[in-house]
UniProtKB/TrEMBL annotation:
Recorded GO MF terms: protein-N(PI)-phosphohistidine-sugar phosphotransferase activity
UniProt KW keywords: Repeat, Transcription, Transcription regulation, Transferase
Domain called PRD: residue spans: 211-316, 322-429
Organism: Thermanaeromonas toyohensis ToBE
Domain PTS EIIB type-2: 433-523
Gene3D superfamilies attached to this UniProt entry: 3.40.50.2300, Mannitol-specific EII, Chain A, PRD domain, Winged helix-like DNA-binding domain superfamily/Winged helix DNA-binding domain
Highest taxon, organism lineage: Bacteria
Gene Ontology terms: biological process: phosphoenolpyruvate-dependent sugar phosphotransferase system; regulation of DNA-templated transcription
Family matches, as InterPro entries: BglG_antiterminators, HTH_11, PRD, PRD_sf, PTrfase/Anion_transptr, PTS_EIIA_type-2_dom, PTS_EIIB-like_sf, PTS_EIIB_2
Name recorded for this polypeptide: Transcriptional antiterminator, BglG family
Limits of the PTS EIIA type-2 domain: 530-672
Amino acid sequence: MPHFIATLVMVLTARTQKLLNILMEAEKPLTISYLAHCLAVSPRTIRYDLDRLRYWVKERGMKLECRPRVGVWLEGKEIIGGEGKFLPLPELGTYVFSPDERWKAILALLLRSEKPVTAHKLASELQVSRTTILKDLETVEEWLRYRGLELVRKPKLGFQVLGEEMKWRQAVADLLAAAADENQLYSYLQELSPKSPSKQPRSFLEKICSLISKQEIKELEVIVQETINDLNYTVAEGNFYGLLLHLAVALQRIKQGKNVFISSEQLEQLRALDEFRVAYKLAERLERTYGVKIPEGEIGNITLHFMGAKMRQGSPVQTFAGVEPYLLEIVQEFVRHTGAVLGFNFFEDKELIIALALHFRVTFHKLRWGLSLRNPLLQEIKEKYPQIFFAARQAARRLEEKCQVGIPEDEIGYLAVHLAASIERQTSREIRYKALLVCGSGIGTAQLLLTILRKRLPELEIVGLGSVLELPELLKGSQVDYVITTVPLELKNFPVIQVNPLLQEEDILYLRRKLLESPHKGGPPLMLKDVLTEETISLDVEVKDWEEAVRAAGRLLVRKGVVEERYVESMVRTVKELGPYIVIAPGIAMPHARPEDGVKQVGLSLVRLRPPVDFGNKANDPVDIVIAIAGVDRSSHLQILAQLSKVLSDKDKLHVLRRARSAKEIIEEVKP
């Protein structure tokens, strides 16, 4: 093997090697979308791989060219390998795994094997030392323990994964999800010929996909599609491939005599569902096709997967048909609480309500029956949406008693994603900025400019229109983000943007850039230390009831000039209308109202009560800390809440809030 190829194999993934071969053999530039189609990955993934390739080809005298609307090609490839081509991918040699890929590949090998596997065999498979394998097995053991499985070491025989069948299958599903998304896995499996000779897998994805029969995936697609068509049953397109992967794993295990157990009581409940009828018909087809006996417990398991994949007739955002009333009650309780914390009216989002109801429908069955429920994206969700996860967790705690089931963090992560999607839908429709329009031309030109702005920049609301002479009157009591003008203008307290009276395309681009640079969007994030000051902290305040406590926190904001008096009244009214949902955690209340209720600027106040008082929240009373939030918009509210949620989730920081002797101590504690 040429030295160049041998060196390349040590650092490039199998996919990147394949991409390199395609570019070496191409006679003309290839588009990124074409390359993405060839390798069954996203265009974004192709761009990452091209970045990796760019360095390597440069070191070897070539240049990777990439031009918009032209494509990607290699310059100087004729200097390599005589004919200007690399060896075909199968001859490139053994794939070298990254540390993260390696322990997952070890896990796949262990899950695939029915017998113990020695460390020596694992080392040989992955071409690393036995010491490296033993260290990786520590990671594997921890990963399995989290999922209720055990990594057992049998002397002279090796390592083996033991545990309940349902948990074993969930572990396989989690591993597949960690390797790639369902569409990528399915595309990869569809590319491979089931009749190709069996060879030792070289790439990471090949190792993981060795857990699934490639031939059965193709057969199952036909069987499942025909079954659901015959029964007029609809599966959400995005869930179909995941359903196939689950069925492929289940079928292999059934053939090996590894069946899922579901109690007679649980089966009795499942038999009443439409999904059970579909699962039963599918099981009959599978029995005829593969000559296996599918126990009723397995039919119950397939039922649960259908419940998770189902999309009801018609779009779920258009109908509540078939959603059980008790589920809607649970969802309403959940969105009422999370909405009160996050400052959003989730009741307006019909798509969210139905999505949560369908989600809870499956989840409660699994939780009540003790079935494994793991969220491979949990940590990422916590980091990306801390405030939303915090609100979802507090709401879930309230539901546990009502539903008589514990709700784990993995499930709370899924609920947070639903809320995040709703927030994105709502904020994308919002008017983000308010502006005054000042014109030096005639009325006709001003109206034309106004019409164009409303059409081209829907996120911008023009709240006033006038001349330079009328501007002082327009600015009185006005809360605007910008003054847009067609004449030179300077103002001390308002940012000014000057544009052409006939608004050229470059003016539109300029306006968009200025809006993106706004503190609401692209400016520096709000920090707690900037909005919580010594003047807005009051310690050991004595009040007679919850209303007086809320007013005490509100007065601090009024004195600071952050809000008007009416904002305090709105906070009190909100509690009376929605109930004590502002008590978000044991001993902590977080009152707030809408930005339009009198917010002048972003602010925060903290009142510590001595003694604590009841707010009427049975789970979290009595309250000793009241934190009032004032956001100029929902974006600023979420920014503050994101940081607050980290403080309030930290037991040590909470202890300081409750024991600090001065406001200065508290400010020091909330600093990032």
